Amino acid sequence: MKNLLTGLGQHVRSELMAYADRGLARQVHGDSPGGDAQFDVDEVAERAVVEYLRAHAEIPLAVYTEDGSLLELAPDPQYVLVVDPIDGTRPTSAGLEMGMVSIAAAPLEKDSPTLADVTAAYLLEIKSGAWIYGDDDEGLSSGGYAHPLPRLSRTTDPAKMFWSIEFNGHPMHLMNAAYAHLVDRSANTGGVFVFNSASFSISRVITGQLDSYVDIGNRILRDHPHTEAEFLKAGRGSILHLFPYDIAAAVYLAKLSGVTITDAYGEDLGTTELLDLDPMNQKSCIAAATPQLHKELLGAIRWDIPGATPTTAGDAA
User: Fold this and answer.
1) Does 126 show up as a binding residue in the annotation?
2) Is 301 marked as binding a ligand?
């Protein structure tokens, strides 16, 4: 499985690097089944996934990708690969460092495999080529980093944390109401970043570059259902929270590394169905290098946010 996952990731990266060398302008060609905009680089990466697996898979496989949904490559597949060919399409399109190939593998022994069923995962940085791999048998391995991984920080104070947050498809004023005070508290004595890639953000906690990652949009929607119109407006008609393919590999590797990672309620993410894009199967996430920082974040974020009122949602619609 390691050879298959790493080979697939490297092939996708090589196709993307060759495409970037041609200097073509970025364009949006449509939407994924979940509603996220698909850029030209997404088409290149999606095609590379299927091409490689058709040529190199030695066991019966199915593959589930961001744009292609479920594809059985052989009768009675034994495993499903959940692949986000580019987690971080926008930074990848801009030639920045935050794009990653994300691959998770799970036995296909039931109709609805979950994140808890994942047995192997691989994250590959498209720009640098650095990678993190893990499986149930061999544990964690990595390459291209200056230090062995994991290398978790010991930060417990939110005022000193380096952290990333997410805004894609998230109404800005709702996020501002929930954690602007934490941004103000940490922006000078710590660091606040927006990377537009859950895989990159979570992997930065594993590398020790970040102390935490926060994406709370799905909890805000669940706690305040009348905000749905605002989330739909921000997502151009779709709910765009954390899809299973966004986090399947990163959550598995984070847990293997000792990162404290849950949804925004503090609940385990293992029940997430890997092949379901429904908004109620989409997720929130709080990841932290220490249990103490995770607890501090859960308690400090303002969940009963003043901006989430029926009147506000009606005005937005």
Assistant:
1) no
2) no
Q: Which of 176, 281, 297, 171 is nearest to 222 (CA)?
A: 281
| Tally of domains in the chain | 2
Q: Which of 87, 115, 143 is the endpoint of a domain? A: 143
Q: Are residues 133 and 192 in the same domain?
A: no
Task: Verify that 208 and 134 share a domain, yes or no.
Answer: no
The CA distance from 126 to 147, in Å, is 19
pLDDT digits (tens, 9 = 90+) for 86-120: 998 888 888 889 999 999 999 998 789 999 999 99
In a domain, 153, yes or no: no
The beta strands (E) that lie in 211-270 are given as 212-215, 260-262
3-class SS at 309? Answer: coil
Distances (CA, A) of 100 to 9, 12, 13, 26, 177: 9, 10, 9, 17, 30
Three-state DSSP class for 73?
Answer: coil
Residues 119, 173: one domain? no
Cα–Cα distances in angstroms (integers) from residue 240 to residues 9, 53, 170, 206, 281, in the given order: 25, 28, 8, 25, 11
pLDDT score at 69: 77
66 is in an annotated binding site: yes
* Mean of pLDDT values over 10-19: 93
For position 317, what pLDDT does the model report?
31
* Alpha-carbon span 2 to 256, nearest angstrom: 16
Q: Are residues 112 and 212 in the same domain?
A: no
Residue 42 near residue 26, CB atoms below 8 Å? no
- Domain assignment present for residue 285? The answer is yes
pLDDT of amino acid 312:
39
